[in-house]
Design brief:
The structure is a single chain. The protein has 285 residues and is α/β, with parallel strands linked by helices. The protein folds into 2 domains: 55 residues; 212 residues, 3-Layer(aba) Sandwich (Rossmann fold). Strand 4, helix 8 and strand 5 form a beta-alpha-beta unit. The longest helix has 34 residues. The radius of gyration is 27 Å and the shape is globular.
Length: 285
């Protein structure tokens, strides 16, 4: 291999005649800067891997029970709420799961679900809130792996959602209407619930009891901008089959047409009171 005129036999740049002696200092300085950048990159890569390992898996997996001191446990993780629980006094506590399906924070369906969960809290259950807009959930890839194992092979925030879907005695989902259906963000979560349906189906095939639990119930809250007579039909059907996949009974819906702009639901004469009252009855409060 031939060396260029600017290299010495040792591979280091050499000064040609007429160059300033400061040139070698500049070369060494640049070389040191490169070494420092490489060391910095290696440091961040190493610490990034350590952080993922401490979380229990790849990406955001391993968040089934947020460790004390983490953002999820403290209530600052935007994907999960801090558990809202009254003193148990040794009693079994009902878990109520509220799933916020809107991509817009503090929008109309957020307000509906807030009122509903306020009413549900009257019977002192544990209340958990999932904000799907802040979660990393991939779409179902129809690989068929859950047909064999009852578990999804994808590693994302659904790893933390599955245990909540199975444990909750009450689930309420809220979504605005997009093209006569629920939002894309919520639909990702619903489609991925196929794994839980197959988990129950595999148990049934093996002779284990996988029948739906009539005490577990689900509810839908929705709002849409137009006044179409069939505007909510698709969302209602989607919710019914979602809860059926979870082995739950569909308990009903509250849907409000002609709610177009952010905050319009506050001007509705009964909507928030409807949700507050229905939330109370939903949990027996």
């Amino acid at each position: 291999m031939r060396m260029s005129s600017g290299e010495s036999p040792g591979g280091r740049p050499r000064l040609s005649k007429g160059k300033s002696p400061h040139s070698s200092r500049i070369v060494r300085l640049r070389r040191n800067m490169i070494v420092l950048k490489i060391a910095k990159i290696r440091f961040h890569v190493k610490n990034g891997r350590t952080a993922r390992a401490q979380k229990g898996g790849h990406g955001t997996g391993g968040l089934h029970t947020p460790p004390v001191g983490t953002a999820a446990a403290a209530g600052t993780d935007p994907r999960f709420s801090r558990p809202e629980r009254a003193p148990t006094h040794g009693k079994n506590i009902m878990l109520v799961l509220g799933i916020y399906g809107s991509p817009r924070p503090r929008g109309n369906t957020d307000l509906l679900l807030d009122a509903f969960l306020e009413g549900a809290s009257s019977s002192h259950p544990e209340v958990r809130r999932l904000y799907v807009r802040n979660m990393r959930i991939h779409g179902c890839i129809e690989c068929g792996k859950c047909d064999e194992t009852g578990a999804c092979v994808q590693q994302d925030d659904m790893e933390a959602v599955y245990p909540l879907l199975e444990a909750a005695s009450r689930i309420v989902i809220a979504s605005p209407i997009f093209f006569y259906g629920v939002t894309a963000q919520l639909k990702l979560l619903i489609d991925r619930s196929q794994a839980l349906y197959m988990k129950r189906e595999i148990a049934r095939r093996q002779g284990r009891d996988a029948s739906p639990d009539p005490s577990r119930r689900g509810f839908l809250l929705s709002a849409g901008a137009t006044g179409g007579k069939r505007m909510f039909e698709c969302a209602i059907l989607t919710a019914k089959y979602f809860f059926d996949a979870l082995g739950m009974t569909y308990a009903g819906e509250l849907c409000y047409p002609r709610i177009e702009h952010k905050g319009d639901i506050r001007q509705h004469p009964t909507a928030l009171d409807d949700c507050l009252r229905t939330g109370k009855s939903f949990t027996g409060g």
